[in-house]
Specification:
three-stranded parallel sheet, 303 residues, 10 helices, six-stranded parallel sheet, Rossmann fold, alpha/beta
């Protein structure tokens, strides 16, 4: 069994990005600039955003953090988004989720200009990803692809089971694993809360990607020997015995599943760190003005 070390890989990616940024600046170009909007005081969201800001500093990016009160109106938030859309100094930006319940997340994501949507959540980016056009792939799925690629895990012809069908991870991951590329070319099964006899599918899987948000959901009796297991979930569970008052658990029963599989990603120290690295990669692409213009001409004359 080999650990898919997100800490090691993310450090490698950051070093590569830092080298590219250094060369950009030396050639007279500006450093990429990432902005983040944080609404309210959710503890986990503050931690995630702080990690992203710190990572920007490590690779030489400029970063802007916009903190907004939790009682901000939806229209006020959209006004702030429009300001970033029209700010040429900002290459890309994110709106940290989740948002307060009185704000419609879908409308907020639609308000972000697709060419600055480095989280890859806008429908236009999802559509471009589906057609295998240049796009910003959601950071977590992109991080998983990087992990599979850099560990030279063969995916062609393999059976991949994705557990979870969220728009952020499960659904895009299922599309990415079946497209004509490496990683890719898998036969993909997507499972969810309405799937009957889930173990029937996971026991046939060469690759399992668990993204459902239930601690230790995937157990050893659900995994065949030699499978590759990617754990996307991360849940805080109260634990008074720890200094922080909680422990972090993934969707996989790591202790027991790791004894059966060929590769496995840990929690923490796995996919989460790759997500931040992928966001930086998307921002670097956003700073390249030609990246998003590379597309297919769908005009009537070319159909």
């Amino acid at each position: 069994m080999q650990i898919l070390d997100g800490k090691k890989l993310s450090a490698e990616i950051k070093a590569e990005i830092a080298d590219t940024v250094k060369k950009m600046v030396l050639s007279g170009k500006k450093a990429p600039h990432l902005a983040a909007i944080l609404v309210g005081n959710d503890g986990a969201s503050r931690t995630y955003v702080a990690s992203k800001v710190k990572s920007c500093e490590e690779v030489g990016f400029k970063s802007t953090l916009i903190r907004l009160e939790s009682d901000i109106t939806q229209n006020e938030l959209i006004t702030q988004i429009n300001q970033l859309n029209n700010d040429d100094s900002i290459d890309g930006f994110i709106v940290q989720l989740p948002l307060p319940k009185h704000i419609d997340e879908e409308k907020i994501l639609l308000a972000i200009a697709p060419e600055k949507d480095v989280d890859g959540f806008h429908p236009m980016n999802v559509g471009r990803m589906t057609l295998h056009l240049p796009s910003y792939i959601s950071a977590t799925p992109k991080g998983i692809l990087e992990m599979l690629n850099r560990y030279n895990i063969e995916t062609e012809g393999k059976h991949c089971v994705v557990i979870g069908r969220s728009n952020i991870v499960g659904l895009p991951m299922s599309l990415l694993m079946q497209r004509r590329s490496q990683p890719g070319n898998c036969t993909v099964t997507i499972c969810h809360s309405k799937t009957n006899d889930l173990s029937k599918y996971t026991l046939e899987a060469d690759i399992i990607i668990a993204a459902l948000g239930k601690p230790k959901f995937l157990t050893a009796d659900m995994v065949k020997p030699g499978a590759v297991v990617i754990d996307v979930g991360i849940t805080r569970v109260d634990d008074a015995s720890t200094k922080s008052g909680f422990r972090l658990y993934g969707d996989v029963d790591f202790e027991n599943v790791s004894k059966k599989c060929s590769f496995i990603s840990p929690v923490p120290g796995g996919v989460g760190l790759m997500t931040v690295a992928s966001l930086l990669q998307n921002t670097l692409s956003a700073a390249n003005e030609e990246f998003y213009k590379k597309t297919i001409d769908f005009s009537v004359d070319n159909i």
